[in-house]
Amino acid sequence: MGQKVNPVAFRLGINKNWKSRWFSKSKYQEFLREDFIIREFLQNKLKKSGLGGIEIERSANSANVIVFSSRPGLIIGRGGSGIEDLRKELKSILIRKLKIDPKSEIKLSVEEIKSPESKASIVAQGIADQLERRMPFRRTIKQSVEKIMQSKDVQGAKVMVGGRLDGNEIARREWTAKGKIPLQTLRANIDYAQATAFTTYGTIGIKVWVYFRDIFEKEIKQQKRPSDN
């Protein structure tokens, strides 16, 4: 039986970075719970705002949450009021659920995703939304792959759905792919995401792989050099 591994986790430290960048021996459990609640809250709150990813950085008494979105204007709001209200709501939830120190600082920033059509998490959520609206799954996944491949940087794409497709009694998996997806090549830059469509006849799992190109060791060193200085 084949053993599956997350393509992003497989490449951590090679050409992928960690989504949470911190370490603490004394408060590891507390920070882990805090990260989980932050991600859960933002994913539910910003579901319709083209959410592409959440990264968390920590220092002594502060946490910096970076939200990647294809529609940052919806999150920031007029004059920055939207993101400030979101930050206050997030902090109040952390104080209520985890009883964190009210003096601790929570920073929230938003970065725009330039090519949302080739971002795996946004594509997966888009497919989930269409399946929840009872769109035919074959046409949905085929159109999604075609749309991903329109980006000049993409060299391959694959979409898989699994569950009671179109309401059939027996669950099954269906997939479509175009180009190449070298999953076992560590230098391959592969974006991967999962999503779930909640339909009237059950849940449908969605997986999306997007292959851009190979990243070699020289390029990784060049990317790290400016930040190290």
Q: What can you tell me about this protein's structure?
A:
By secondary structure, the protein is α/β, with parallel strands linked by helices. The chain has 2 domains: 7-112, GMP Synthetase, Chain A, domain 3 (2-Layer Sandwich); 116-217, 2-Layer Sandwich (Ribosomal protein S3 C-terminal domain), CATH 3.30.1140. The protein is 36% helix and 29% strand. It contains 7 helices and 8 strands. The protein has helices spanning 7-10, 28-45, 72-76, 81-98, 120-132, 137-149, 217-228; strands at 20-21, 51-58, 62-69, 105-112, 156-163, 172-179, 188-199, 202-214. The strands form 2 sheets. Strands 1-2-3-4 form a 4-stranded mixed beta sheet. A 4-stranded antiparallel beta sheet has the order 6-5-8-7, with helices on one face. A hairpin with a 2-residue loop joins strand 7 (188-199) and strand 8 (202-214). Helix 5 (120-132) runs antiparallel to helix 6 (137-149). It is globular, with a radius of gyration of 19 Å. The relative contact order is 0.13. Belongs to the universal ribosomal protein uS3 family. InterPro entries: KH_dom, KH_dom-like_a/b, KH_dom_type_2, KH_sf_prok-type, Ribosomal_S3_C_sf, Ribosomal_uS3, Ribosomal_uS3_bac-typ, Ribosomal_uS3_C. Keywords: Ribonucleoprotein, Ribosomal protein, RNA-binding, rRNA-binding. GO terms for molecular function: rRNA binding; structural constituent of ribosome. This is 30S ribosomal protein S3.
Tell me the Rg in angstroms.
Answer: 19 Å
Percent of residues in β-strands? 25-35%
Instruction: Give the CATH H-level superfamily of the largest domain.
Output: K homology (KH) domain
- Could you state the order of secondary-structure elements as H and E? HEHEEHHEHHEEEEH
| Helical run tally | 7
Named CATH topology of the largest domain? GMP Synthetase, Chain A, domain 3
Q: Tell me about the largest β-sheet.
A: 4 strands, mixed
The order of strands across the largest sheet is 1-2-3-4
Which architecture of the largest domain would the CATH scheme give at its second level?
2-Layer Sandwich
Total strand segments? 8
Overall outline: globular
Number of domains: 2
Identify the quaternary structure here: single chain
Reading off the top of the CATH hierarchy, the class of the largest domain is best stated as: Alpha Beta
What average pLDDT do the residues reach? 89
